[in-house]
Amino acid sequence: MGKTSSSSSIIRTSIFSFLQNYQYFTSFSAFLAFPFSVSLLLSQTFVFTSFTSLLPSIYHRFNILFDAAGFPPSLESLSIFTHKLSQTIFSSIFTLPFTLTFLLIAKASVLQAFKDTKPSSHPSFSSIRSLYTPLLFTHICNSILILSANATVFSILFFSFNSLEGFGFSSSTSFLWFSAAGAVLYSLVLANTMVISNLALVLSGMERLGGYFAILKACVLIRGKTSTALLLALPTNLAMAAIEALFQYRVVRAYIVVGRVSLSMVSEGIIIAYLYSIFIVLDTVVSCLFFKSCKPVYWVDLEGRQALQIDSVEEDDGGCIDSKALHHLHSTTCG
Questions:
Q1: CA-based radius of gyration for the chain
Q2: Which of 43, 132, 152, 172 is buried deepest, with most CB atoms within 10 A?
Q3: What is the pLDDT of residues 87-113, one digit of tens each?
Q4: Which of 223, 172, 167, 230 is nearest to 198 (CA)?
Q5: CA-to-CA distance for 153 and 139, rounded, in angstroms?
Q6: Order of strands across the sheet with 326-331?
């Protein structure tokens, strides 16, 4: 089975599992994620309406840093990137308390439901709470990993730009092409880092394994399946970006035009935030099933002589594992 068909199969199974437990996911998990969704959408509102001086301060600091590092200040792409990076950092700071509480608990509720083969029963709050600590440690380590990936790419670009000037390639065309290559490199590194971080978070909930060990195990599990993970992350991320744009168009734009908050704005904002929460839950469901497809499952016969490995677990609607996923791993004889 190819990567595209594998990703489409996981998406179909995810939608089926979500609809099969629609009441639990929409009435419990989505409401747990609702405060985080509100905070994230409000952070975008503060970005566009300039309610706070934190964003201009972050943007100014980045400009000083890039100027000191030797990046050409005339590059328009650098200005766009700096502005977008400042918005991302501002949103991360603004939503941090809600991320460490409501978002992680909402993800824990979905992960606890999928700890069995199928989410047939609704987990208790005590079982959900038991997953919070490994999720918290893994989220902190993921944040450090993302910061390290950004710092590494910036260091590479810094040395590359200075080497480019040192070899005499200081024309605007050279800088333009090199900026495009740097943007591609940054996108690839960041996308792979986010995929590994997401899988590590799911792994820490499914196996109660927190911290850097979950990240290392996620790197092992995702080998050869990075493109599938990126294809799985694309639909939900596009949907959430579209919801953010809808919030900007229906709520923020209306507020800028009217100049005050009305009941209709609040109602539309609540509905859009709830829709965003549903897609957060759906994204977690997709990640859970992708984790199940990455995790090898071993079977040993009664005499302990033979082992089989299922590298990619695929279940039909009746819960049966596809026999094509089995392949012979090794044969051993117990001493």
A1: 23
A2: 43
A3: 788 888 889 999 999 999 999 999 988
A4: 230
A5: 21
A6: 297-300, 306-310, 326-331
CA distances from 327 to 220, 225, 306, 313, 323 (A): 19, 18, 12, 12, 9
- Map residue 2 onto helix, strand or coil: coil
Cβ-count burial 211-247 (b if 16+ within 10 Å, e if not): eebbbebbeebbeebeebbbbbbeebeebbeebbebb
Please identify which residue in the block is written with the tokens 């995929």: 195
**DSSP for 200-263?**
HHHHHHHHT--THHHHHHHHHHTTT-HHHHHHHHHHHHHHHHHHHHHHIIIIIHHHHHHSS--H
**Confidence (pLDDT) at 314:** 42
pLDDT at 107: 93
Closest CA to 26 of 278, 197, 220: 278
Half-sphere exposure of 292 (CA within 13 A, CB side): 21
Q: 88: which residues sit within 8 A by CB, 6+ positions away?
A: none
Residues near 232 by Cβ (< 8 Å), separated by ≥ 6? 7, 10, 11, 286, 287, 290
- Tell me if 290 sits within 8 A of 6, measured CB to CB: no
Helices (H), the chain: 3-20, 22-24, 30-49, 54-69, 76-98, 104-113, 125-130, 132-166, 172-207, 212-221, 226-247, 253-258, 263-294
The per-residue pLDDT for 194 is: 92
The rounded Cα 203 to chain-centroid distance in angstroms is 13
β-bridge partners, 330: 307
Q: Which ranges of the chain have pLDDT less than 70?
A: 1-5, 47-55, 67-79, 116-123, 164-175, 295-335
Cβ neighbors of 106 (< 8 A, separation 6 or more) are 29, 30, 32, 33, 36, 277, 280, 281, 284
**Is-contact 251 45, C-beta < 8 A?**
yes
